[in-house]
Design a protein that fits this description.
single chain, 328 residues, alpha/beta, six-stranded mixed β-sheet, 7 helices, binds zinc ion
Length: 328
């Protein structure tokens, strides 16, 4: 795998991240976000945008003029944000116009990078891997909205398998068994950035009055948990996702465990990969492995997290501050 250049200097040992997701063209929220960033500008390093900045509908006929307006607005907002941060990582959502899925032909600004099936080396020891879009939405086993750009879980899985992220996974896997394992990439932490979250995660459950939907993508979980990706999995420090407005939380801690526990079985359903289910214990934690414990849902319900990352293997931890209060 080609060694990619770091965005930040080699002696970087701490970076501050702000994550926003699912603004859905809410101008008031955007203005408040910008106000907050201006006040804190001195400490801001990286802005992670997890998609659905807009309200584009891929299953409806959209007027060309409206689409152009959306494209312009996203670009304009990215540019505004790019003036306050050193680096922007933008993961397109299913409500972004198609233009944002063609990252290679779109240059917004020198410090804005669109990640879709691709990776970006942030600094020595830290890599971001990003994938946008979503699979079809399902409730009670019925399709309730179309996926974009993935019509099925299989599409999503195939996309991941042919992506740069797969190459990174293979690189880690081969290095873990190779005798020359002193590569620079080996001790990297990976932050995995997605629009749709993975199934098997407490941050993609949706609790309804009489049933629970387990949302998130089976393909994404299957990819992460694939036996040939165990080395990649070991490198993932955190997976940040948006999209699932019905479910929020950091590592699933906002989930009301009791409510989940009342329902003995949570059904996961996918037409191609087949239906299967998992059991949960009295704390509401799925007992059936595998289960992904490191996800954070950054949807508009909590809107964002302020995160600090300490590098160089001396100290590595995440400080999470919900700043939803700034937006209410
Ligand atoms: Zn979405």
């Amino acid at each position: 795998m080609e060694e990619e250049k770091s965005f930040f200097k080699d002696d970087t040992n701490s970076l501050n991240f702000v994550v926003i997701s699912d603004l859905h063209n809410n101008k008031e929220m955007f203005d408040k976000f910008m106000e907050w960033c201006k006040v804190h500008q001195e400490i801001l390093d990286v802005c992670i945008m997890l998609g659905d900045m807009e309200n584009y509908f891929h299953n409806r006929k959209m007027e060309t003029r409206d689409v152009e307006e959306m494209e312009k607005r996203v670009i304009d907002r990215c540019k505004q944000i790019s003036l306050l941060f050193k680096l922007i990582l933008f993961i397109p959502g299913n409500h972004e116009p198609p233009m944002f899925y063609h990252a290679s032909s779109l240059q917004i600004s020198d410090n804005v990078f669109i990640l879709h099936g691709s990776i970006k080396k942030i600094c020595e020891g830290l890599i971001a891997a990003g994938v946008g879009g979503c699979i079809p939405g399902v409730s009670r086993k019925q399709k309730i909205f179309k996926g974009y750009p993935f019509n099925t879980e299989v599409d999503f899985f195939n996309f991941l398998q042919s992506s740069q992220i797969e190459k990174l996974a293979q690189y880690y896997q081969s290095s873990s068994t190779s005798s020359i394992s002193e590569s620079q990439l080996i001790d990297d932490a990976v932050i995995f950035l997605t629009h749709d979250g993975p199934v098997h995660s407490l941050t993609t459950f949706s609790m309804n009055e009489d049933h629970i939907d387990s949302l998130g993508s089976v393909a994404l979980s299957k990819f992460l948990l694939h036996s040939s990706h165990s080395s990649l999995l070991n490198h993932i420090e955190i997976l940040l996702h948006g999209h699932t407005h019905e479910s929020v939380g950091f590592f699933g801690e906002h989930i009301v465990a009791q409510e989940i526990a009342e329902i003995e079985q949570v059904q996961y359903f996918d037409q191609k990969f087949g239906e299967y289910s998992t059991n949960i214990d009295e704390e509401g934690v799925p007992t059936e492995k595998p289960f992904l414990p490191f996800t954070a849902n950054c949807c508009s319900l909590t809107l964002g997290y302020f995160t600090t990352f300490f590098m160089k293997k001396i100290e590595k931890r995440w400080i999470v501050e919900e700043f939803s209060e700034h937006f209410l």
